[in-house]
């Protein structure tokens, strides 16, 4: 599908330049940006500011340092049962959540209520699943406080300063311990993470279930199983069945405007945060299905028990045709969240490592004008990406890393993000970091073509500069490589890219591209090998490509083609919306625009 090329002054007002300006001149020109256009709407100012992006990068740096501390800490920090874990296994086991925060004035909250860094890490990962996060905060009473604190996240991070050096006041460490029975310091808490109170789906007894066992049957281990004194073997599928049955039997007829009585993943749609009609229709269909229907005059507790017994206390025994795959993704254990937060944190590690490899997590990196240009370009390109989403022409749209960090920062505005995406893009732009790699790879090519058609310039070019090259060298290389902005280029190194899902019925969605993609990647590597032998390509750049490390030239819609682009690896996430394609996932994030199904 062809798109009208956006007006040159839509994204950047930049004077025509015959030769390459200095980075400070580029930054000064870019900083004069007055407005953006997304679809038919004009945005009077940037939806995200550079100070928030910098603070977000500082937060990611603190997360990375925390992970390194956990993975390399001495064994005496750990309970005996956890000392056999290697670094990555320790990180997967290490997590806490907060139930005892309350809303106060921001400065007071930072001093008296701000949670430890590992809890901020969980909250951060939760907010990067914006549709699930919004619906969960609406449906689940215990999470209601999080919604009230949405506007606090980034301001609090800024106010706390360098989180790698942050120290809470003594009063805060004491109140945290009183509330949670764990120390405020994340590493000190590790020796306390021994058991979890888990209710038996059969008799309702509360059991102290170990997190780890030598035989691998602990709550946080793959083969979790605990035998209750009632004789029921408690498993994750049994806990998930209990959670599902509890939501199913909740009375939605007497109070149809109460979010908590509906099933996860049915209330929040791409255009309506509370689609009562749809949620009620899905619940009625299930509640009155022959296999789930209650017997006449049966109490709700009896109804719930009969459902669990009928399906052998295992949610995996439910017929797949009964429930939407998105809904079933929310029922994997007994935890209230519809997102596996531990898995989400682990996936974020890939993105954080990519940012660190680019040098973006280095303190003071963007104090230099040459590097500051990168963030300013990223802001402009993010708004152009939202404009592309509003056009909805491809099965996937794949953001690059520079766009992705701004997108993630925008999501940390909570309700404000969902409101702005609906207002300017036309639907709630969700984020999913579980999209299959091959669909992201093909979606990158589609994004390049759609971007070229809409804005009349390339989405990116692969330059593969070395990480220790000076910025001036990188800009010179990019300028030399650009050539004509009218050339329709095909992307390379797409395996770690984010994507945005558009139309589910697009033919590309049904085509298995693995073989074709493998052949294409092999052809490109052979081509680059010949270029090295001919002296036309640096051998080190070729080696970097073999490691699947790539950086990209990021031209700006409406800007003079030339110096000042941002260079990124491809991002690992996807933009989507509820019901777009069930269990999306590859890279880190994806955006979708088809109708809810």
Description:
With 597 residues, the protein is mainly alpha-helical. The protein folds into three domains: 130 residues, no CATH class; 134 residues, no CATH class; 213 residues, no CATH class. Helix content is 43%, strand content 5%. It contains 22 helices and eleven strands. The chain has a three-stranded mixed beta sheet. The chain has a two-stranded antiparallel sheet with strand order 1-2. A two-stranded antiparallel sheet has the order 3-4. Helix 16 crosses helix 17. The N terminus and C terminus are likely disordered.
DSSP helix fraction: 40-55%
Q: Can you tell me the residue ranges where pLDDT is under 50 for at least 5 consecutive residues?
A: 1-32, 461-499, 503-514, 546-554, 558-574, 576-588, 593-597
End-to-end CA span: 23 Å
* Mean model confidence by pLDDT: 75
Largest β sheet strand count, sense and barrel closure: 3 strands, mixed
Largest beta sheet: strand ordering: 7-11-9
Taken as a percent bin, the fraction of beta residues is: 5-15%
The class by helix and strand makeup works out as: mainly alpha
The total domain count is 3
Number of separate helices: 22
Total E-strand runs: 11
Oligomer: single chain
The global form is globular
Radius of gyration: 25 Å
